[in-house]
Amino acid sequence: MNSPVKIKTSNTNRVHKMIIAFLLVSTLISLALIITPRFNHIKVFLADFALHHIFMTLFIGFSLLVLFVKFLHEYYKTHSFSWAGIKTYEYYNPATVRNRWYQRLQRMKRKIAHRQLEKINETVLTDVLTNEDDKSKRYRDLLNAMSLGNNFKHKVKLHVKQNNRNSVLEATVWYANEKHVTLKGGKVIPVKTIVKVEY
Question: Within its chain, how far is the Cα of 70 from the centroid?
């Protein structure tokens, strides 16, 4: 004895096949009417019917469109294709689309924050180190701290001097370049304010 779920699925598939058959037959009839000059009187009749019964024509067209969209939705839900490891139905799911746009917005905000920080680095801040060798050593230490943070989740101590105040931050370095350092949690520190790095 078949379960109710299988019966429902079978009925749904039958309805889908009927919709496809109806759309194919309608398309073939429309093409025959357009191409063959023998059916000109039928085309004139249909045009006259559509002109005098415009609301009924719109209702029929809208009903067909709703049925077609419903069929596509159910079809992609049950027959989800995979492209580059991503299922098409999951990719175009409204919740997934909102999540992707949210992530893009967050990336845009981070880029804007980094650009503002770079402007501050170039115009306002002065480097706490004056010796070029010390600056090179600081940059190498920051790269090593980034490697330790990404590979081993190892924390380092950053000695920071800002507004004539010295402070020590113990954190995991996620990213470092010549202008700024990104710590775990998203906090960004200008490199010019770092005095030294301790592992």
Answer: 24
